[in-house]
Amino acid sequence: MAHGPTILGVLILSAASALTLAASTADTPADPPSSSAVRPGLTLEQYPPHGDAVRGREVYAQNCIGCHGPEGQGDGPAARWLNPIPRNFQQANFKFRSTPSGELPLLADVVHVVTCGLAGSSMPAFPLMAEGDRKAVAAWVLHLAEYGMLRGEVDYRLDDGDALEKILGDDWQEILDETLGDAYEDVWPVEVPQEPENDADSVAHGAELYRAQCVACHGAGGRGDGPSSYALRDWKDAEVVPRDFTTGVFRAGSTPRDLFMRMKTGLNGTPMPQISGSDDDLWALVHFIVSLQDPDTKEAPHPLSCAAHAKDAAR
Hints:
Helix content: 40-55%
CATH superfamily of the largest domain: Cytochrome c-like domain
Largest sheet: none
Radius of gyration: 26 Å
Number of helices: 11
CATH class of the largest domain: Mainly Alpha
Number of domains: 2
Mean pLDDT: 84
Order of helices and strands: HHHHHHHHHHH
Number of strands: 0
């Protein structure tokens, strides 16, 4: 009968293994000590909030930090379980805006997302939060975006050999003016013209435009299953799933006006570009996309209170 190793045998083998490991480790040079792990740079404390953003920092800590992280980098403790992952506000890539492509959103755009959430994602709605708190936390989110842009400029100058003391001293006002000036250079609510009649001619024209510009990602039937849909990635190299138009539900608003805004401005940080063409072309595309909705869909669009952005919202 075969017998397993005795206790003494196990102890001898363990000791031999330990000696072998010690010998091999002794011959392996230790990792060099980390040279001051983090290079000095702009900290959030060096760019303090003002106005509503001061209160917004507190509201954020109470409601948003679990997903978006302590400094808005999308690295909260719950982030690993969420798909899509939470927005990194410091990257200043905001998808749902009423501002031109590449620009930061208006305060009202962020308030809209906080109030209504993003259907089909882990971003909940906060309609019961006091209006003042919603505006305040939106101001803090924009402050985090500004900070991320400023930190990037500071890092660029550090790489170029400038001293941090000089950057934050003599050069600081110039950095503020240039960076924030660029961020808000074209910030205005994009005009949404009056919607023309949604008739057969408009839908037919929209179908032609859709086949030319949208089928590759969204598919012929609008189900998000085009030939390119399986290879789409965002700026973080995360998978992007094109919208399924048949549900009639769109993040940040499902009215024709919202769809027009998405095509007019694009979705920053994603493969969804700003669509070129006249306003009539964009409305025709909207009308065709609306026609793709499955009449038997069980999902319902946003309630009226969350249907669209205020037309004359101001930052």
